Records
---
Amino acid sequence: MTDKLDDVLDSTIRAEKAQALEMFRMHPLSIPRTDTAAASRVWPVLLRNFALSGVALAVLVLGVILFVPARQQNKRIEVATIQRALQTADSGQTTPASVAPVPSYAFQNRHVALRENGSDMTWTVQRAIVRTQSLDYHERDLNRTVLAALSKVQHAEIESAPSGHASSTELPAKLDDGLDRLVSASTIERALRSADRKAHSSHRLTQLK
Amino acid sequence: MELLMVNEHEASMSVPAEIAARSISVEDLLAYQETVFLICLGFTRNHWDAQELAQEAYLQAHQRLAQLRQPDAAKAWLCRITRNLCVDQIRRQKWRRFFGAFEEHHNEAPNRQTPETLLLASEQTRRVKTAIEKLPAKLREVFVLNAYGELPYAEIAQVLGIKIGTVMSRLSRARTKIKQELEGTE
């Protein structure tokens, strides 16, 4: 009985397998083929693209490294340059402090000195120096930075102006903390505008008196 | 992706000696595709599921080929992948049966078989299938690997990570249980 069942089992499984295999062989498995020839064609292209991408990336990084700081450099004025310009100008300045207009030779001296900078910010610096000079001509301590001078202008204006006219403290004290730092042109411009406003008020008050 | 259709000649080709001698490729493993298919058939009891699982087994083998350290154990390695896939498939089917009769209805083996298959499926075959399906998982996998995959005891032990003695005892118990089941249904 057991042998008979064994036979039944084996024969049934054998038949089932034979039948399944018959169908399976009609639809065998499909597998991805490794096309070495295609791979050999693809690799140089990939390598070339990779190299080109690398070069492009390197150029981009180099551009960022070189160009962005250069632009930053243009936008910033070295305090030492301003200081040098002021020293040059001061050396020839003999005009009485009470004279309001800035002497022309002082202009020229400064202009010459500022040529050293050679950047498009020269004019801003020049204006800064001129305005500083015009506003702060009674101060002889110009051997400091423009910012220090502007700060003094502000302080002078604060001291001399009536209360309520010298509210601007836009020139931050922190900018006056050293000679070796870089200051943005916009900071100087802001300080100048503030000083201009205060100077104008002060001048009007003086005239009224 | 370009596909390589494997013909009957390639399918019946056996290359264990060559495989042992060099690094193995999926093309080499195709020598065992019928074994893989039959193991899947034994587990799933369904031709189309078996074919899909066999395809999946080869896909996994292709992806994991770098993990194969011993080329001479390639067949056991492939059969282990197949067995794991089948066990996962059975587990998923159990969950499907648990969660919905509709799913089960569409995944039943007879409904997805061709008319030819249905005609050829005798009452005896149905009873044997039922008896195999009723086997406990551990006995069933040994029986399927032996009866359908035609793997020797040593390879079954290698695939399942058990001792040969265990394989033999489980196989004996499996056959006994199947025969008892067949006797009961007669």
---
Amino acid sequence: MRSVALALIVLAGSAPAHALPNMIRLGYANCVSCHVAPQGGGLLNAYGRGIDEAQSRRGGEYAAGSNALLNDLTLGGRIDQDFRAVASLQLSHAAGGPYKGVDRVRFFYRNVTNIGAGFRVSAVVNGEHEPSLRKSLAYDPVARPGSVIVTSALVQYRPKEGIELAAGQDALPTGLNIPDQTTFIKSRNRLGYYDAPVQAKAFLWGKRWSAVSFVFAPGTEEFQAVREKGGGVLAEYDLLGKGTTVVGVTTLHGSDRLGRRAVGGAYTRLGFGSFGILAEHDFTRRRMHDGTQPDQSASYLQVFYYPREWAAVSGIAEQVGVQAPYSENLRAYKGELSLRFTSNLTIGFRAGVQHDVRTGNKTPIASAQLTLKSVN
Amino acid sequence: MKISKIHLLSARQALLAASIVFLCAPARAENSAAVRVAEGGIKFSVGTNISAVSVHGGSNAMTATVTLHHQSGQIRLENLRAAVAPESFTTGMSLRDHHMRKKIFALEDSTMPPLEFKSDNVICPHTPSGQETVCAVSGELALRGVRRPHSFSLKVRNEGKAYRISAESVLSLTAFGIERPCQLGVCVSDDVKLKLDFRANESVELRAGAVR
């Protein structure tokens, strides 16, 4: 029961600093349109900031460089940066137990410095008083991070439009790239909030396709036993060429002192104007050195609807199943509401239930989140 | 030769819907006439200097009139007039819609002349039921008050009592004296693809000879 409650706290967590794959509804097939980094997440480029403002309740034109304080810190436009604060309240309830509340406040500083000749360096520094840990498992233990951590530190080189090379510490490329790092398809595949291995990756993209290949080595936050190294490939294609029908596949191989894993997945992002569908299914084959084989399947489905450009509602269903001896069969159903009042202020709500199919336990969850950020 | 005159005013008609609709009519019978447009729309797409960014939009509001002549194995369209109000075009993002209207459609005094197409004389072949035919419609397109020769390539599939029709063409902004719009470093291409897709149903009134 305790583990269920803990899982729910993790489930209720959220990650506020990532790309929005639901922009597929407007024909933005990938992240590079609006984000500095082709992987998405992190800072927005100028066009992305314009879209960010346009998609808010306030709306209107984005005026680059309108923040005098930040302008003074840009070194003549070489530096893009922002500050972000996220406050959240999460409630969970184990069957027969009391409701538990977790307050969490996080601060982010994000910086991209253009060196010139296509080179830039970037970093994301996080500060928090309460970590958002993914569930620690016997075959995948999780270390508690410090209160100040660097989740991304990269050197990036873009020789021309459509090609980018990056090296450093960062989250691994992932298929659907949803912002919530606590979903099963992410948290159960080492794509949680603190998973930032050292890596080198190459992005290639064109009008209707994109691909990334990567190799990785341990980062700074793992336990010694799970300091993993490996590599992978991700590729996706816009079926109809309108930026609204993307299908992709992803694969990853990794090994550490506990064993090996191979992940294969398929995903799709579909946009239909004011609504859309995001779906992904992954299979993880594990061969542990102790002889166990806790293979895993994880699925995610989201249907979202924008009644207004600044308001999104979505229904989410997900599942994860793990084979013996660590048998699990969990399902979660959630509803979300996100209100973007300005490019500086977003409020989100989430409510749902997680169902442990093996035990029959159904546990409600709820969370509210306030996000503030500066815009330069 | 028999002549049918048709007036269509529908919020769901697409830019060249009427023309194609009437092209199909002779396939039904020599002395019957027309079809009415339904479930249609005009869409556009345009690329940008950023490969991953393109802009898509459309309109479901159009008005059109045409005079249809039935001839053996062919139909002839006369005085086709179609128009779409610029305000009806949307891209899914209100600010982008505002930019589009301001930079594409609006004159200096902020008025927005309609997007118009006219064709005086077009002949298309008969379309047997269950088959598709291709036809070209040439005429004159007016954008922001500037008129230029323009043509559409049509595909018409006869589905029996209805027709599935699509039409495509490419519009050059500079040909109409319009500078390529740019926003925060993203500039749209000069060539804008237009596409019509709609379903056309036979008009009972016209088939009965109510409009001749």
---
Amino acid sequence: MRFVSFLIALCLTSVAYADEPTNPEAQAAFRAGASAYMSGKYLEASRKFSASYEREPFVDSLWGWAQSERLAGNCVTAMGLYHKYAREVGTARGTQAANEMIALCEKQLPAERTPWYKNKLGGGLGAGGVAGVAIGITFLALASSSRSAADEQMYLDDFEAKLDEATTRRRIGAVSISLGLAALGAGVTVYILHDRKQRSTLTAGTDGRVVFVGARF
Amino acid sequence: LIRFVLLVHLAACAAVTGEFICETDDQCRHGDELGFCESTGYCTFTDTSCATQRRYDDNASAAVASACLEGVTTGRIVDRFVVNDEMGRPLLQERVIPAAELKPSVIFEDGSMSPVAYREQDGVFSFANPTGLHYELRYETAGTARAFQHAAPHVVTGHYAAGRRDRVPVTRPTTLSFQQTPALTGQAWITSTGLWTQSAAGNGSNGSVNWMNAGSFSGALGLLDASRFDRVHYVLTGTVLGYSTITAHSSYAVTQIDGVALTAAGPLASVTNRDLCVDVAHLAATELARIKTVYPSATGGSTGWSITAAPARDVRPHFGHSLAFATATTAADGTTAARFVNPYPGTLLVATMTTNATVSIGYRTNGGVTFGVDSRIEVAVDPTDASCSTAAMLQPTTALSGNATIAGTPIDAADKMVTLPAGAPFVIATWTTVRPGPAHVYNVTLHELEDDGAGGTTTAVRGGWQSSEQRVMIPAALLVKGHEYVLQFQTTTGMPNAAAGDHLTVEYPWQVNNSYSLSFVIN
């Protein structure tokens, strides 16, 4: 993937130096963006290409911006920029290149779009937690039953045996409930973290004229 | 959440508790240990660190759980006896006394009584004593009434008999004869073990005894039974170097049938090698002098010492067959290297000395009657050969008691008038030590002095009590207005833990001294 991007970047570079923004500030930002891009500093390259494009809506700046975002891992943002590029480039070759990049991004997105409730770790912890709490409640009920049975014993040995049984059951119940609650808590935490990670794909951008939003659902 | 989980864990760590309410001892068991169901409704178990030797179970109410039982006097009464094993050796055994035989009861110094709970499984008893009053525990063993006074929260006592308990009584003349060879001379004795008896049988190798007249050491006479390993011995004694000892002996296993004469025939073996020796120091003159420091007018002084073969030691009373002995009409200090044989297998030896003296006590101004101010000392000896390296020091040291006080009135003169407190169920008698020495137990006897109508005095025993304190409770009903009494103190050592309630532990030397109060008259 990075090799393909590199080839495209080379292509972009050759185009860029053949045809650059005419606005001096846009041109300087464009060149700085290209330089950062070549150095693998994609976020910096994105900012420079974005700054260049804001000063002069030069499509190659838009292309470089889109590429930089994609390579920085922000495919949703990149896809918006590719779509914009496809509309503005006005050439079949440019539109095709943009569509290829969009397709590339879309291949990456499904893996990131797992719904929170399909998180296996969270699900396992949650299910285990519920089971633990249920088992714990059952043992607490059994402990109460043993304690009641103790009062019905005729002999001290039997009374103590029932108390011991009640103690053991209560301890098992308490430990089970504790572990269950801990597992439930861990499961919820996993879901929350999962959700937060999903939210990181929600993004927005603007080129000064158009506001675009990208998100996973 | 974490706090909640921690709280749940803390709650779970504590064991589940509860109160177990009992109604009978059988409900109070810890494995094989049988506890006690107290009147509180909670179980206790034996714990020697408690004064009452009982501690509440953890499952009693919170107010008493794990605490020592209080407000109750506990104890145990045991009956011990010896039987012969298959080798004819005595074997000490213990029996729990059936409740119907024991008939325990208790009366407190304030005259109140309390039921005595007695458990036949192990001979343990208890009675409520919430304020720790002095008490008199009364009971019977083998038909003999017994009692002792104490204030200890736990007491153990027991009685001991020489011989099997399951003896078949002798109801008809049952002659036991011996025809033995060779014909030897000497004082003949017919003795037995298993059922311990001793009877004089005349002189020589052939003697007989009507078993109905045999001298039982303890309890009723019984018929000898070879299947129970009973043994009968025939011994001749003779004087050797100033003391008497066994000169010939034989032994038989016989089974007697009530009313059927039986003859044992066999050889009578002369003693040619007296293989045991004890160096006996018998200091009777020293002891008589000690008695006279309290009773200068004491007369007499006859004395005797012996070495006996006992079925058991560390138990009371002492029984034993004589192996060597000597008597004298006047007290003298001396040492005798006593050589002897012991024909009684498995027996343990005890050396004893008695010193006898008397004092005269009379009713008012009448002529008196004699009361013994004698003493006795027993020591354990274990000679293994004829070297005489084993010594028996027979020199009594027990305290002599006197200076009585009756109901607070010091009896400091003869015929002292005593006014009793009105309505009191018991009259408290106390005393002190008038001749220093150890003392563990006191047996106190109340003698009444009466006018015989001829200027003399007669006496009658009105009661007796055992105490480990210098104090007894005399039932007020026994002390009659105008009547005259004297107290006898039998001061005993050899029960070192008696003050703490342990009347079972016996140690040597065992010593007894008799002394008396001055006479007193009830006002």
